[in-house]
Amino acid sequence: MLYADRDPGREGAKKLQAEWMAARKANRAPAVLHGARFEPLSVKPEESQFLGTLDANVNAIARLYGCPPEMIAGTTAGPLAYTSPEMRSLDLLTYTVRGWLVRLENAITRLLPSTQYARFNAAGWSGSTSRAATRRTKSPSGPAS
Questions:
Q1: What is the pLDDT of residues 33-59, one digit of tens each?
Q2: Is 3 helix (H, G, I), strand (E, B) or coil?
Q3: What b/e sequence results for 28-67 when a residue is b if at least 16 CB atoms lie within 10 Å of its CB, and e otherwise?
Q4: What DSSP designation does 36 have?
């Protein structure tokens, strides 16, 4: 970033820019003229540590709710980084959403007559994976219509 102590004006700014670009193209250090100074753009160590803290907070929240971190803008590391998005969605259903669905089913069942119960069809949500679609289309009876 180039900073000037005083306003170089439109022509002075154009001249500074032209000198800067010519020096960069020639792969040499530009001579900063007209009272301007150069400060490289960089992230200060305390700011980069803050970014790491934010990432740690996202991962902690994901652990608290049993949600995969990448579903709430966190990072994935290790072998889970190479799983498909549909398998990660199935993990979300299995390890996060299913627990809440069971609680909701139990609450609704308590409101119903004793001979009835409520159940969600979670299998319908997870049936959209590529493997399930392939099995449906290759079944002996043909694709479901």
A1: 666 777 777 777 777 777 777 778 888
A2: strand
A3: eebebeeebeeeeeeeeeeeeeeeeeeeeebbeebeeeeb
A4: E
Phi, psi of 89, deg, nearest 5: -65, -40
> Which amino acid, one-letter code, is at 134?
T
Rg of the chain on CA atoms, in Å: 29
pLDDT in tens, 121-135: 877 766 555 566 566
Task: Provide the residue ranges of all domains of the chain, joining segments of one domain with +.
Answer: 2-38, 44-79, 83-131
Which residue type, as a one-letter code, is found at position 75? T
CA distances from 70 to 52, 73, 112 (A): 15, 5, 38
pTM of the entire predicted model: 0.43
